[in-house]
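Why do we care about 3D structure at all? Because function follows from shape, and shape follows, mostly, from sequence. That is the central idea of this module. The next example makes it concrete: a single protein chain, its amino acid sequence, and then its structure expressed as tokens.
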Amino acid sequence: MLLWFLGNFRDKLKQQWAIYRKFGVFPNNMKYYEWVFMPDRFHHNFDRLELLGDTVISNVIIEWFLKRYPELSEGQLTSLKSWIGSRKFLNRVALKYNILELAVFTKRFRLKPEETDMPGNMLEAFIGAVQLDKGIVTARAVALRLLEPYFKEINVQDGLPFNFKGKVLEWGRKHNRSIYFQTEGEAGGRSFRATLFLDDIPQTSAWGQRKREAEEKAAKQFWEKHIKSRDSK
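And the structure:
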């Protein structure tokens, strides 16, 4: 019994130091980090941590760019948030930090994690775990430390990637129209359905594997149906 306890304590301490060396934060409650780095074993909790981490990262993105570029419009900030918070961007960051080195997958996980969105998802879940373990202040500090080098590479004067949600929101504000989204998750799945409302009237709906993806698709439909066609006349 004593040998089992000592072995378990040693393994836990080894995991804590591995996380500290990679991300600069020493875990207190390893339960949350097991949810992160054993994603197919703790699927439900992983999804919830991912959602929490996404919120933290989104706020960090907006705050950093708003302080650095106070002239940015709501649409431009939305574009930045969608771009930096995209799977492609977060996957690149997560792989740069070799986050998969800490992951343990069961034999059920038959895909190569590095060829999926798992690295970016895991990075979001990790930030969520830090918030539960250490609090929001530490979670924001860790997210900023990991992402700020990539923020500094972005020159907003060179133009931003086209983002339909940001463009639609900017159009609504310019024309004094109320535009917002209602997004719901599919029970038991990882799909989301987003509906775009114009002046409280539903206009377009779309499905996506992530909330951000569903909203972007609904915004694209609205842009092409109501704005692009109007501008081309």
